[in-house]
Amino acid sequence: MTDINEIANAVASDAALTAWYPTVTMNPAYDFASDLAHDFQCCVVPMGIEYRNMSRMQTEMTYRIEIGFMAQGIDTDVDSLINEVQNIGIGFLKKTFAGAVCTGIAHDPLHSPEAWETKAMFLSVLTLTLRKFRNG
Q1: Average pLDDT for residues 41-57, to the nearest whole number?
Q2: 15-32: per-residue pLDDT in tens?
Q3: Is 92 exposed, middle or buried (0-12, 13-18, 19+ CB in 10 A)?
Q4: What is the distance between the alpha carbons of residues 28 and 44, in angstroms, rounded to a whole number?
Q5: Residue 28 phi, psi dihedral angles, 5° rounding
Q6: Is-contact 44 11, C-beta < 8 A?
Q7: Pairwise CA distance, residues 45 & 12, whole Å
Q8: DSSP symbols for 37-54
Q9: Confidence at 37, pLDDT banded by 50, 70, 90
Q10: The dihedral sign for the CA sequence 63, 130, 105, 1
Q11: Which residues touch 104 (CB under 8 Å, ≥6 apart)?
């Protein structure tokens, strides 16, 4: 479990997330009206690890990290926020975090219309796929 936590902390430390006040959590449940410390916030969540034997001497580890972006009390339109999150995700491709290379990004949902309508809150999720190899 240590590897995925190190990777999640490295992702949260990336300069691209600074304006979103990132936190690493295993339990991303928030009461948005009271739990968000800033108008813009994101939580980085270690979601899973897949191990695959590549040969007798090498194992591939595939890590999945989700980043939830939340914004409330803002004047910015949804399209601008979607574009900002999308650009952050594209910027993560091919970057290395704690020895694992980001090989894929999924942006789903682009935003949650339900959160926007019921809580006046923007909610968007990036899922990062990162790969690392271990010998032995």
Answers
A1: 94
A2: 999 999 999 999 877 555
A3: buried
A4: 8
A5: -85, 35
A6: yes
A7: 10
A8: SSSEEEEEEEEEEEEEEE
A9: low
A10: positive
A11: 93, 128, 129
